[in-house]
UniProtKB/TrEMBL annotation:
Pfam families: Alpha-amylase (PF00128), Cyc-maltodext_C (PF10438), Cyc-maltodext_N (PF09087). Residues 1-20 form the signal peptide. GO terms for molecular function: hydrolase activity, acting on glycosyl bonds. One of its GO terms (biological process) is carbohydrate metabolic process. Keywords: Glycosidase, Hydrolase, Signal. Residues 131-528 form the Glycosyl hydrolase family 13 catalytic domain. InterPro entries: Cyc-maltodext_N (IPR015171), Cyclo-malto-dextrinase_C (IPR019492), GH (IPR017853), GH13_cat_dom (IPR006047), Glyco_hydro_b (IPR013780), Ig-like_fold (IPR013783), Ig_E-set (IPR014756). It comes from the Bacteria. This is Alpha-amylase family glycosyl hydrolase.
C-alpha cells in the first residue's frame, strides 16, 4: 500500500542511527493473565527490510522462544510467552539489524474486570438481537462522514451503494429507543476499517483488523458504545470474518509470503456449493473450489492452512473480544472456511471465554446441510464444534412458505412444521438464531407481498419460537426492499438522518400500519423478557390441520399457546384437541392485545391471524 502504516495509537519506532522507521506490530497489544499467553507477534516495517531476525526483549516474565523471517524482508514473526507473574506495562522490543537498532514499545495491559458477567457473557435464548448496518442507521456525528486520506469519499444517500454517513454515535443516541423496543443485544455488520475504493458500506472488506473505521467514530466511540450497552444490561455482538479480507489489506498488497491467500492461475470464485464438503460422492476439485475459491474479486480468500496467517486471525479474534468487551460472535461466510481451522479458532475463543456465544452464517439449503456446520447428532467423519448457526432453514423452508405458499402435504405451514421437526439433528436448537430478514435477504414485508397481517404473524412467530430471535433494523416499521436490482433492503432507518420527514424513533410521519407493527414488536419483545416459557421453556407443536398450526412454549411455571391460522378462511379452535398442554387451564390473556378471555368463549380464529395466549387456571 502507498500510505504508511503506524502501530495503532501506541508507538513510533526509532533508529539509534538517526533513520526514522515506521514499524507496526500485530496484535497491537495483549494482556496479562490470559489463558492464551503464547503469542506470535507479526512485526512489519513499512519502509525498509529487516536484515536479520534477531529480536531482544528484556521484560520480566516475557520470553522469546522463536523468530522467523519471511521472503518479504519487511516482516518478522516473533513467538513470545507471557508468564503468569508478568506485570502490565510497556514492553521494549529491540531489533538489532547490523548497524541499525530499533526500539518499539508494545503494551501489555491489565485485563478488564467482569469477565463472563460484564463482558464475554454470551448471547442466549433470553436475548432479542437487532442487526444494524451502522452506515444506514443514524448519523450522530457529521464530522466523520468523510475522512481525509481514505479511498472511498462517496457520501450520497440517493445512491444505495455509496456511503450514507451513519456512525456509532448515531447508535448511542438511540439506545433508549432500542431498549424500549425490547432489544437486548446489538449486532453490527463489521465495524473494522474498510479502506477500499468503493462499496464500503457493508464492512466485510476489512483492510485493518486492528482499527475501527474512522467513519464510524473509531475505537473510543466503539468502546463507549459497548460500555453504554453493558450499563443498560444489554450486549454487544461482533461480526467476525475468518474467510477473507479486502484487497487493499496490507496482507494482500504486501504479503509476507505468496501463500497467505489462496492463489489460482486466474481469478477463481467459489462455487457457492456446500455439498462437496460432506457429499460422499464429491470430487476434490469441487471441494477445493468451494473452500479456496474467492468470495469476490475484491475479497482475497485467506489461506488458513498457513500457520502464520491462521495465528493472525485467531489472535485478532481474541484481541477484539478483550479490547472491546464483546459478548457474542457472528461468523461471516462460515461454510467457505477451512472447517478444521474454524474448529481450531472456535476452540481458542471458547477456551478463553467459556460463556461466549458463537453463531455462524451457514446460508445453505437443507436442514441436514445446515446441521453439518454446527454441533450436531450426525455421524460424519468431520464434527463441527460451532455452537450455533443462523437458522436460514426456518426462514427459507419455514415461515416464508407458511405465509406465501398454498397449503399442501409438504407446502405452506406444513413446511414450517417439518423443518422444526428436524431439530433432532442439532445439539442445541435453543441456540439457533432465528430471523425474518437481514442485510443479505429481502425485507420480510416485501417477501409477504406487503401484507401487514402476514408481517405481524412473522414477528409473533419470531418472538415465540425456540431459539434466539434476531430482528433487522427498521423491519419493525415495515421497511421493504429486495436485493436486486436496487438493493433497497439496505435503506436508511427513517429518522436517523437530518431532514428525514419520517421518524421511526418518535413516530412522526409513520402510517397507522407501521405504528401498529412497531407496537406489536415492542409489546411482545418486552413480554418475552419476563416470560420463562418463551425464553427458556420447551416447545411442543401439533401437526397443522387445514392451515391451522398450534404450538406451545411451556415450563413448570408458565404455558404460552401460539395459534397460527395461515388459511384464507376462519378456523375453529377446539382447546380439547390440545389437552396435553391445555388441560386444567380455563382462561387466557392475549399477550399482544392484553385482552383476557375464557377459553370456552374462543371458538374461531380469523384467516391469516395469529394469537399468542398466556394460559391461566
Amino acid at each position: 500500500m502507498k500510505k504508511a502504516l503506524f502501530l495503532w495509537g501506541v508507538i513510533m519506532s526509532f533508529s539509534l542511527g538517526g533513520f526514522a522507521q515506521d514499524i507496526a506490530i500485530y496484535p497491537t497489544n495483549w494482556w496479562v493473565g490470559m489463558k492464551n499467553n503464547s503469542i506470535q507477534l507479526l512485526i512489519r516495517s513499512t519502509n525498509e527490510d529487516f536484515s536479520s531476525d534477531k529480536v531482544l526483549i528484556n521484560y520480566p516474565g516475557i520470553t522469546v522462544s522463536k523468530t522467523h523471517q519471511f521472503a518479504n524482508k519487511r516482516y518478522l514473526a516473533v513467538d513470545i510467552t507471557i508468564g503468569p507473574k508478568t506485570l502490565p506495562g510497556d514492553v521494549l522490543i529491540k531489533l538489532a539489524q547490523n548497524s541499525k537498532n530499533w526500539e518499539i514499545k508494545w503494551p501489555v495491559k491489565k485485563r478488564p474486570s467482569g469477565l463472563g458477567t460484564s463482558y464475554a457473557q454470551g448471547v442466549t435464548s433470553v436475548d432479542f438481537i437487532d442487526l444494524i448496518m451502522v452506515d444506514r442507521f443514524s448519523n450522530g456525528d457529521e464530522t466523520n462522514d468523510r475522512v481525509a486520506g481514505m479511498l472511498d469519499q462517496s457520501l450520497n444517500r440517493k445512491e444505495m451503494y455509496d456511503r450514507h454517513g451513519g456512525d456509532l454515535q448515531g447508535v448511542i443516541n438511540h439506545l433508549d429507543y432500542l431498549q424500549d423496543l425490547g432489544v437486548t443485544a446489538l449486532w453490527f455488520t463489521p465495524v473494522m476499517e474498510n479502506d477500499m475504493p468503493n462499496r464500503t458500506e457493508h464492512g466485510y472488506s476489512i483492510t485493518d483488523h486492528y482499527k475501527i473505521d474512522a467513519r464510524y467514530g473509531g475505537s473510543e466511540v466503539y468502546k463507549q458504545l459497548g460500555n453504554d450497552l453493558h450499563k443498560r444490561g444489554m450486549k454487544l455482538i461482533a461480526d467476525i470474518v475468518y474467510n477473507h479480507f479486502g484487497s487493499c489489506h496490507f496482507l494482500a498488497q504486501d504479503p509476507p509470503e505468496n501463500d497467505w491467500v489462496h492463489q489460482w492461475p486466474e481469478y477463481t470464485q467459489t462455487n457457492f456449493r456446500e455439498q462437496p464438503l460432506f457429499d460422499p460422492y464429491a470430487t476434490k476439485a469441487d471441494k477445493k473450489k468451494m473452500s479456496n475459491g474467492w468470495f469476490d474479486k475484491m475479497m482475497p480468500d485467506i489461506n488458513q492452512d498457513n500457520e502464520y496467517m491462521a495465528n493472525f486471525i485467531i489472535q485478532n479474534s481474541i484481541w477484539y473480544i478483550e479490547e472491546f468487551g464483546i459478548d457474542g460472535i457472528r461468523l461471516d461466510t462460515y461454510t467457505y472456511n477451512s472447517l478444521e481451522f474454524a474448529n481450531k479458532c472456535n476452540q481458542a475463543i471458547l477456551d478463553e471465554y467459556p460463556k461466549m456465544s458463537i453463531f455462524g452464517e451457514a446460508m445453505v439449503h437443507g436442514v441436514a446441510n445446515q446441521a453439518y456446520f454446527e454441533q450436531n447428532n450426525i455421524n460424519t467423519p468431520f464434527k463441527s464444534n460451532l455452537p450455533s448457526v443462523v437458522d436460514f432453514q426456518s426462514l427459507y423452508y419455514g415461515i416464508i412458505p407458511a405465509l406465501t405458499q398454498p397449503l399442501g402435504w409438504t407446502e405452506g405451514v406444513n413446511r414450517l412444521y417439518y423443518t422444526l421437526s428436524s431439530d433432532f439433528l442439532s445439539k442445541n436448537p435453543m441456540q439457533k438464531v432465528l430471523l425474518l430478514d437481514n442485510h443479505d435477504e429481502p425485507r420480510f414485508f416485501s417477501v409477504v407481498g406487503e401484507d401487514v397481517e402476514k408481517q405481524k404473524i412473522g414477528y409473533q412467530w419470531l418472538l415465540t419460537c425456540r431459539g434466539i430471535p434476531q430482528m433487522y433494523y427498521g423491519s419493525e416499521v415495515l421497511m421493504k426492499g429486495f436485493k436486486n436490482p436496487d438493493g433497497y433492503l439496505r435503506s436508511d432507518f427513517p429518522g436517523g438522518f437530518k431532514d428525514d420527514e419520517k421518524n421511526a424513533f418518535t413516530g412522526q410521519g409513520l402510517t397507522e400500519a407501521e405504528k401498529a407493527n412497531q407496537s406489536l414488536v415492542r409489546t411482545l419483545a418486552n413480554y418475552r423478557k419476563q416470560s420463562s416459557a418463551l425464553t427458556t421453556g420447551k416447545l411442543m407443536h401439533y401437526i397443522p390441520v387445514d392451515g391451522l398450526y398450534v404450538y406451545f412454549r411451556y415450563d413448570a411455571n408458565q404455558t404460552v399457546m401460539c395459534v397460527m391460522n395461515t388459511a384464507s378462511t376462519a378456523k375453529a379452535v377446539d382447546f380439547a384437541k390440545y389437552d396435553e398442554r391445555t388441560e386444567g387451564f380455563t382462561t387466557a390473556r392475549n399477550v399482544v392485545s392484553g385482552e383476557k378471555v375464557s377459553l370456552s368463549d374462543i371458538t374461531t380464529i380469523p384467516p391469516m391471524r395469529m394469537w399468542v395466549l398466556e394460559l391461566n387456571k
